[in-house]
Design goal:
Mean pLDDT is about 90; it is low at about 320-338. The strands form three sheets. A seven-stranded mixed β-sheet has the order 3-4-5-9-8-7-6, sandwiched between helices. The chain has a five-stranded antiparallel β-sheet with strand order 13-12-11-10-14, with no helix packed on it. Helix 6 (about 150-165) packs across helix 8 (about 235-255) and helix 8 (about 235-255) crosses helix 9. Helices cover about 30% and strands about 30% of the residues. It is built from nine helices and 14 strands. The protein folds into three domains: about 5-60, Arc Repressor Mutant, subunit A (Orthogonal Bundle), CATH 1.10.10; about 65-270, 2-Layer Sandwich (BirA Bifunctional Protein, domain 2), CATH 3.30.930; about 275-320, SH3 type barrels (Roll). It is α+β, with helices and mostly antiparallel strands.
């Protein structure tokens, strides 16, 4: 028999000492079992103080989003299955396999480091181990294939809301779904869809967020930032994931229930609309004023003669000055482009 370690941590998170007997009564297990489970939690990285006659007191949770830690952070509010792998070729691959096997919406695969992570347009993934939140979330949206173009944009809205909630920042969204702070990239998102006839059967949203980095490689240092650098975030990746998964699912549900509301939320956070941008795709580069996102998620550019064209894919560079007066493209990949 194994006790509910997530519930043990949730009890300890209430503060102060909690006796082994009280934990045992709550879980319906012996004090000896409680002691063994506490030992397992300590071995996983939890700092728990044990004092004879007083019980146990939680000092700190691990940095990594371990399943027991996530269960404690979500206790009584959410119940999403989490798989944590210290190192993995790609969380997208593992989550995709899990989705095909029937994993529910919200099922999440997280890691400290990816060895074969990939980004949009086939880019490789760069992530110093333990510095970024790297996770892939299973989605089961009730959307038709024609409406699925807005799904990556909805994920971006959810991720931006989670960062605002947990880290206190307010990132902008560069079409379709990069998150920026003052023109520098905080996060990248990749959404892969599996269609069933005319509907979305399931999707996997891969999200990489720069969390603790304060030193980037020279070739991307001017274009990348982290939650620590941008907003002074000192929380853990586990705490960030605890806010991220429910916010992403809520944004997807909003897209299903009230698409215009979700689209308005994306436009409010956009750093692309109203700007002269350059879009580079398989057919070359085009430049124009970004005037809108259409009903299927394409960006609409207006040329110098008023002609308009919609683009379903491509890499955007912001050609005008940033709000703080600096200039420069934000189209190249950073340490958290997926």
């Amino acid at each position: 028999m194994v006790a509910d370690r997530g519930l043990i941590l949730a009890m300890l998170r209430e503060g102060g000492f909690v006796s082994g007997a009280a934990i045992g009564r709550r879980l319906g297990v012996s004090r000896a079992m409680v002691g063994r489970e506490i030992g397992t939690l300590v071995a996983s990285g939890c700092r728990i103080e044990a004092v004879t006659g007083r019980g146990y007191r939680l000092l700190s949770l691990p940095e990594a989003p371990l399943p027991d830690v996530m269960a404690a952070l979500w206790q009584g509010r959410h119940d999403y299955p989490v798989r944590f792998l210290p190192e993995v070729p790609s969380t997208m691959q593992v989550a995709g396999d899990w989705a095909r096997a029937g994993a529910p919406a919200g099922a999440t695969v997280a890691t400290n480091h990816q060895t074969a992570g990939r980004g949009r347009r086939g880019r490789s993934w760069q992530d110093p181990p333990g510095e970024a939140l790297l996770a892939s979330i299973v989605l089961r949206p009730g959307l038709s294939a024609g409406a699925a173009g807005w799904l990556p944009l909805a994920v971006a809205v959810g991720a931006a809301r989670a960062i605002a909630e947990v880290a206190g920042g307010s990132p902008g969204i560069k079409w379709p779904n990069d998150l920026l702070h003052e023109g520098r990239k905080l996060a990248g998102i990749l959404v892969e869809l599996t269609l069933d006839e005319q509907d979305v059967r399931y999707a996997v949203a891969g999200i990489g967020i720069n969390v603790h980095q304060d030193d980037f490689p020279a070739d991307i240092a001017a274009r990348a930032s982290s939650l620590r650098e941008a907003y002074g975030y000192r929380g853990t990746r586990a705490e960030l994931l605890a806010g991220l998964v429910p916010q992403v699912l809520a944004a997807v549900e909003e897209l299903e229930r009230s698409p215009e509301t979700l689209r308005a939320a994306w436009r409010d956070r956009s750093v692309s609309l109203g700007r002269v941008v350059e879009i580079r795709g398989v057919q070359g580069a085009s430049q124009g004023l970004a005037v809108d996102i259409d009903e299927i998620g394409r960006i609409v550019l207006e040329g110098p003669l008023g002609q308009r064209r919609a683009y379903a894919a491509g890499e955007i560079s912001l050609a005008q000055a940033e709000p703080d007066g600096s200039k420069g493209s934000t189209g190249a990949s950073s340490s958290s482009s997926r």
